[in-house]
Write a structure and sequence with these properties.
The complex is a heterodimer of chains A (310) and B (252).
Chain A (H helix, E strand, L loop, with lengths): L4 H4 L33 H4 L4 E11 L5 E12 L4 E5 L6 H9 L6 E6 L2 E2 L7 E4 L11 H11 L4 H14 L15 H14 L4 E5 L7 H18 L2 E6 L2 H7 L2 E5 L6 E6 L11 H31 L1
Parallel strand pairs in A: 3-8, 3-9, 6-7, 7-8
Antiparallel strand pairs in A: 1-2, 1-4, 4-5, 9-10
Chain B lengths: L1 H23 L10 H13 L2 H33 L1 H14 L8 H8 L3 H26 L2 H9 L4 H39 L3 H11 L3 H33 L6
Classes of the chains: A alpha/beta (310), B mainly alpha (252).
Chain lengths: 310, 252
């Protein structure tokens, strides 16, 4: 029998800050949450991993008017934190992730990672797209290897890490399969392994589980929580599902509809591992949902108004 | 198996009707040769090596001309698809030029290059360059944008983004245009050879006409069909199917 993922790399030390299996030391850099001075509380020392400083984005529509998509958004994400962003569809939450990933420039404001402004894509921030964007011409292994290849990681090391990360998402057997041969949930896990293999400090996830059935989604929630605990990555997770946000996040930021603003932030102080059907999760979600409802109504009204105008 | 049986029956029937019509002598044999006459011409052609030489010369021109047009077409297509100015100017010109039958380039080619190999290659190039260019341009546009974004996200940029992401991502959309380019090149080449009379299958066809040898004319026509079908049906279609399977565009 093969060893469990944690034991495969003896440098992974369980610390038990959030769950019993949290490992601070991982491939490469240690998670920055451990770079504290003895005797000082974490919050005083830590520079935010990701900071959005008054981000705005506007663009010209086809009819020529300027549309304000994101309006003066400021957010801070601590190292190792799991932040969920919820909002009605069309509120610009996906766009926000694109900005953090550096795939698109903002109109004004700054995206800071470790205090330094972002000016383009970088492998310290990997985005898992809603449509995944897995490469169909590569095998599962080839997909996971891709980011490392672009970083000029040595062949032997790539081999080893592909194995490691595929085992982590329980897909080692499918290493030589092509993407179209896999189920939706498996593709999802390939995307996760591909992102993790690039060893980003920050993982950006754009409604990654929206298209899955409930059972698969629940399983992947458990796995994502485990991976997060094991790897100590910072995660920014966008979803329209409030329960999912409460199930996963340390904190939930609620966005408004057009222009996108951060309406309110909620800390989720429920013990982990959580379950999406748990009453505490449901209750917390209801609080947030009440707040979100106005925004959903606004977005629906606008849609109907568009229809009437036609 | 069933399909093969149907095909055998169909082609036998076709040959039968042909033989019957020839036997009835409605037209004189020098205008309407029987199948065995054409078979004989084929045999003779291969026996005295003239057909072998014709095939070799034609295929060599094809390979050179087509390779050239694929390389140039890809560069041109990429340039047009990645530059707004070029797309709005050169792009339109390319589409309008495609309506020009490639045989129309022959007078120009002859005046520029004389009755030379270069002139033939020029005609072949002009025949297929445009369809390869347009295919590449369309391929780049049809290709889902997500692949480019995912590639950049994972740290690819510049040439490596093109080579490892954009090129493979656009392949299934480009291969159809490459096939079309081949078909255009093939037609242009035979046309050019018929006028230039410098070896090749086109010349063998014209030689048949000059000698009033209808059997040879038909034998060469059959050769051209078989060669064209072999490349299109076997090489390109297999390539296309494999790509579609691998990319999951079609049930494997």
């Amino acid at each position: 029998m093969s060893t469990s993922p944690q034991n495969a790399y003896p440098s992974a030390v369980p610390v038990g800050r959030r769950t019993g299996v949290r490992a601070n030391v991982f491939y490469g850099k240690p998670a920055s949450s451990v770079t504290t001075f003895p005797g000082r509380p974490v919050s005083e020392v830590v520079v935010p991993k990701v900071a959005l400083d008054a981000i705005s984005l506007s663009y010209k529509t086809t009819s020529g008017e300027r549309l304000l998509a994101l309006d003066n958004i400021s957010l801070e994400v601590k190292p190792g934190e799991f932040l969920c962003i919820v909002g009605p569809s069309g509120c610009g939450k996906s766009t926000l992730l694109h900005l953090i990933a550096g795939l698109q420039p903002q109109t004004s404001g700054k995206v800071l990672v470790d205090g330094a402004p972002v000016s383009g894509p970088g492998t310290d921030r990997i985005l898992i797209f809603q449509e995944l964007g897995l490469f169909p011409w590569l095998t599962v292994g080839g997909n996971v290897e891709f980011g490392m290849k672009m970083k000029n990681v040595h062949k032997a090391e790539r081999e080893e890490k592909v194995q490691y990360y595929l085992r982590l998402v329980h897909l080692l057997k499918f290493r030589d399969s092509y993407i179209h041969q896999l189920s939706g949930g498996m593709r999802q896990r390939v995307a996760l392994a591909r992102a993790l293999a690039t060893e980003p400090d920050v993982l950006l996830m754009d409604e990654p589980f929206a298209a899955l059935d409930a059972q698969t989604r629940d399983l992947l929630h458990d796995e994502l929580e485990r991976l997060w605990a094991e790897t100590g990555r910072t995660i920014i997770f966008v979803t329209h599902n409030v329960r999912e946000a409460v199930r996963l996040g340390d904190r939930v930021a609620l966005m408004t509809f057009r222009p996108g603003r951060v309406k309110q932030e909620f800390s989720v102080n429920l013990p982990r591992p959580r379950h999406i059907e748990h009453t505490d999760v449901a209750r917390t979600a209801r609080n947030i949902l009440d707040c979100l409802r106005d925004e959903i109504n606004k977005s629906l009204e606008e849609e109907y108004a568009d229809e009437k105008a036609r | 198996m069933k399909k093969l049986a149907k095909q055998i029956i169909f082609y036998s029937a076709l040959l039968g009707v042909w033989a019957l019509l020839a036997k009835l002598r409605i037209w004189p044999p020098y205008l309407f040769p029987p199948p065995w006459g054409v078979g004989h011409a084929l045999w003779d052609g291969f026996a005295d090596h003239s057909f072998w030489i014709g095939i070799a010369v034609t295929m060599k021109r094809m390979l050179i001309g087509y390779s050239l047009s694929v390389v140039l077409g890809m560069i041109l297509g990429l340039a047009v698809s990645s530059n707004k100015f070029l797309e709005e100017t050169l792009g339109g010109l390319l589409v309008s030029l495609q309506s020009l039958p490639s045989i129309c380039w022959i007078p120009l080619a002859v005046l520029w290059f004389g009755l030379t190999e270069k002139a033939i290659l020029f005609v072949v190039l002009m025949g297929s360059l445009l369809s390869v260019t347009i295919a590449m341009e369309d391929g780049r546009k049809q290709m889902p944008k997500i692949y480019g974004m995912a590639g950049r996200n994972l740290g690819a940029s510049g040439f490596r983004l093109f080579w490892f992401v954009l090129l493979p991502a656009s392949l299934p959309f480009v291969v159809n245009g490459m096939k079309q380019g081949w078909a255009f090149a093939w037609r242009s080449l035979i046309q050019a050879e018929m006028i230039f009379l410098s070896l090749g299958l086109g010349q063998l066809l014209m030689m048949g006409r000059d000698l009033s040898d209808m059997s040879q004319v038909m034998a060469v026509m059959i050769l051209i069909v078989i060669l064209g079908y072999m490349v299109d049906g076997l090489i390109f279609r297999t390539m296309e199917r494999r790509l579609q399977e691998k990319y999951g565009l079609m049930p494997a």
